Amino acid sequence: WAKSAGKADYALFDEDRNAREVHRYALAQALPAALETGEMFLDYQPIVSLAGGRPPLVEALVRWRHPERGLLRPAEFIPVAEETGAIVELGRWVLERAVRDAAAWPQGPAVAVNVAVRQVRDTGLVHDVAAALAASGLPPERLCLEITETALMDAEDDRLPGPGTLRALAARGIGIAVDDFGTGYSNLARLRHLPATALKIDASFVADLGDPEGDRFAESVITSLVALAHASGMTVTAEGVENAAQARRLAALGVDYAQGFHYSPPVPAEEIPAVLERLAVATGSPGDSGLG
Ligand code: C2E
Ligand code: MG
Ligand code: MG
Ligand code: MG
């Protein structure tokens, strides 16, 4: 009995998996058209300076208002777009829109744009970035590209065009941030040789602060990463900061920037000037939220 039930379960599981694959494939196919019809949009989340005095930064996060499936988060369509290559076109759209929005905000924040490894390997990225900056008038110093730790290590494979691409971008004054740091399996010694200007500590370490089980380990990781990043000339941002206690701990540990619901959730472009205003007014210094 157990055996046959197991078999039935397995068939069900297979069917499920099939349905999910069909679903993913349909999304990937619909993606290029969605760029045309205006179903894609960007929300922006501020990244605030914990020490104060540094200019504000805002991260662009893509969303898809799907006519049948409702609001889709990036986790639902970015991975499949990477598989099919649609990410290159989507990435170009995100870049153009983000630098155009950033150029229009009165506080003049820098804008951080997430890029996939496939975009970094696409030899057109340097050209696309230059074209987007030229069209918007945004200076290169106000653009930062975020690439996940795992993707960056892949892109740094010497047999691929990746490293040249990132170095060329960094040489133009564009920031390069290592995203979700601590979730991959980097050789820490390699960090020093990457053309990165910023390290973003993954939200999981921030979440462990104050947790009786995880606190000591999270604190040691954060302390080490701050030392390592600063010794390599990089700034450090903590992701997923949700309360004042975390913000205070992070500031005390030497973290430079913080991002999370404690300051602001991701909001539409039109709301960014007011959100930056509120965060600046809280302390009288732009970028320092005073909420920490
Ligand atoms: P990420 O770059 O690490 O972005 C941070 C994610 O954390 C965002 O999720 C954001 O909404 C969420 N977040 C912000 N503050 C908090 C907080 O206090 N607590 C918690 N629990 N979460 C918080 P989102 O928007 O769903 O994006 C997920 C990921 O999708 C991003 O992670 C990024 O890797 C990717 N992504 C987003 N937009 C793009 C894009 O335009 N291109 C590419 N290639 N990837 C993108
Ligand atoms: Mg990011
Ligand atoms: Mg991240
Ligand atoms: Mg993340």
From TrEMBL:
Top-level taxon of origin: Bacteria
Domain (EAL): residue spans on this chain: 24-280
Protein name: Diguanylate cyclase/phosphodiesterase with PAS/PAC sensor(S)
Organism: Catenulispora subtropica
